[in-house]
Amino acid sequence: MTFATMALSPALLQAISEKGYLSPTAIQAQAIPAILTGADVVATAQTGTGKTASFVLPLLQMLSNETTEGTRTRRPKRFRALIISPTRELALQIEDNIHQYSRHLDIRATAMVGGMTYQQQKQKLIEGIDILVATPGRLLDMANQRALHFDEVKTLVLDEADRMLDMGFIDDIHKILNKLPKQRQTLLFSATLPKAIRKLANSEIHNPIEITIDPQKAAAPKIEQWLVAIDKHNKSALLSHLIKEQHWTQALIFIRTQHGAAKLVSQLEKRGIAAEAIHGGRSQASRSQILADFKTGKIQFLVATGVAARGIDINELSRVVNYDLPDDTDDYIHRIGRTGRAGLKGEGISLVSKDDFKRLCAIERRLNKIITRKEIDGFSVTKGLPPSNLNFTLKSVQKSPYSASEENLAAKAAKKPTPIKASKEAPKSAANVWAQWVDKNKG
Question: What is the main EC category here (predicted)?
């Protein structure tokens, strides 16, 4: 399937071509035709799968059709499509995508988020828009001030619905839904479908077309995933070495805390590497400027906490680094999904200390594969990592976890698996694996 076979207008096809996209991703190939039929859609897809374009493109096409048919008029404080996003950064990124795809169309869109003046946003509503992108809190604030009306909304998009649930927005979403016309098209996109989101979908979405992109395939095949085992206190030195010796030009570096982000930036700068940190402790204006500078390449190395990085969407980002592994396996997939986009190659690199081992095991179980281990000259570890607990389904485990390539392990796994003879039964948890490894390597 190609974009040209999707009933998209020449103006949209031109914009797609100008962005350098050659063919639709899996979610785009399924969602765009479904949305264009006018059906409700529930789609499960991770970050990095082309999710935003999968709803923006058909929205623009449907609005363009109304213009051609002469059925669309712009009235003050009203709009035809509403996109609700969990974070300010993501809302602004969606707005930017809309502007890029609609550059050859007469479509007006604006984002309504916290951190921006009410008066500026109210003025845009008065002038008339077609698409409103908003965070739940600001949208309700404006509705309560009667600065906008929902009576002309034809299409609602709930983007990253599970994130909105995690961030405590579910009650706000219900309040917004109660204000919308009952006759509308509803599109729900989520990385996962927890019970509360399924309940919401069952009550608010009618006979939806359900689309699921296998999360195991969300880490695209053009993303090379590898890790280095390293003592925690040596992580910053290793990162600096990789940046310099491998001549990295840009990287998004994920870290656990605001304090850790500031400390890492300081350590990198002491080694002559310019970096910037983005986290929830910075103002909205500061975060927006940092994201813009990172996108243009003015900032090469961005250290980010998970929440602050949700709005980052760069098509040509070549490298993502997990300085700290996330607690949630979905977050790992979200993170590495920010690279390897638009058919380009990318790298997902993790710096793993013994404190990260339980998280690593959970991630590898989710992916159902071993992440390639690599050794870096000059950086050894006191004990090393034990083999992943996935290895315990294999006949034997290599003495060095670094010699176990993903391909070799996969080949061995294809053979009839037997438990390791050294233990009566295969360990059932990462803690057991770690305890056995430490006991075996004492002294």
Answer: hydrolase
* Calpha distance 25→4 (Å, rounded): 14
Mean pLDDT of the chain: 83
> Would the pLDDT of 295 be above 70?
yes
Could you read off the pLDDT of 412-440 as tens digits, one per residue? Answer: 334 433 333 333 343 445 556 555 655 55
pLDDT at 78 over 80: yes
Q: Which residues, including other chains, have CB under 8 Å from residue 146's CB and lie 6 or more apart?
A: none
| Contacts of 323 by beta carbon, 8 Å cutoff, 6+ apart | 235, 239, 253, 254, 255, 260, 264, 303, 351
List, in order, residues 6 or more apart from 99 with CB less than 8 Å away. Answer: 109
Residue 422 domain-assigned?
yes
What does the pLDDT average to over 136-141? 93
Span of 23-27, 153-157, 335-339 with lowest mean pLDDT: 335-339
Report which secondary-structure segment, H or E, holds 432.
helix 430-440
**Residue 298 pLDDT:** 93
One-letter amino acid at 441 equals: N
166-170 contacts at long range (C-beta below 8 A, 24 or more positions apart):
167/86, 167/87, 169/86, 169/136, 169/137, 170/196, 170/200
Check whether residue 366 and residue 235 sit in a common domain: yes
Residue 33 has pLDDT above 50, yes or no: yes
* Domain span holding position 26: 3-213
Beta bridge partners of 188: 42, 158
Q: How sure is the predictor about 409, in pLDDT bands with cuts at 50, 70 and 90?
A: very low
Q: How far apart are CA 222 and CA 381, in angstroms?
A: 29
DSSP state of 184: -
Q: Is the pLDDT of residue 139 over 90?
A: yes
The CA distance from 270 to 278, in Å, is 19
Model confidence at 264: pLDDT above 60 = yes
How many structural domains are present in the chain?
2
Is 443 part of a structural domain of the chain? no
In sequence order, which residues have a C-beta less than 8 Å from that of residue 28 and are 6 or more positions away? 50, 53, 54, 57
Task: Decide if 434 is inside a domain.
Answer: no
Phi, psi of 43 (to 5 degrees): -120, 130
Please report how many Cα atoms fall inside a 13 Å half-sphere around the Cα of residue 401, on the Cβ side. Answer: 24
Q: Residue type at 48?
A: G
The last residue of one of the domains, among 213, 248, 270, is 213
